[in-house]
Description:
This protein has helices at about 20, 25-30, 45-55, 65-80; strands spanning about 100-105, 110-115. The model has no long low-confidence stretch (mean pLDDT about 90). The protein has four helices and two strands. A two-stranded antiparallel sheet has the order 1-2.
Amino acid sequence: IRTSSEAYTTDSEAIDKRNVHLTNNAVQKNCGNYGAFEDGNQLSFVQLQAYLNETFPEKHIDVYGNLVLQMKNLIIFSMNSVKKKLNAEDRKHCFEIFGYDFIIDDELKVWLIEVNTNPCLEESSKLL
């Protein structure tokens, strides 16, 4: 899970602050607070579970059983929507890596933002 170097806010004076709204590593790594809260501005699912347990104990959130499951379902849905376009030439022994970007809203619903066909695999922490 990628995080921001600055606290999220919807205040109008922060609307143009890229470091508040974009968690992309290419943007965040140039921020003065980069890595101040999490190594490489990233959380593992285990760290996210611990944060949610501490912050929202009454919600009994299961990262793997709820959030990751929603992500997997969105990935399956998106792949099914384009499966006839993937490998249309029926090439053997080929693969492609896709990068999925999600956002989790305040109701803990996972939304698919975009799918990248050339995701950055740059090592920015022990997690990646």
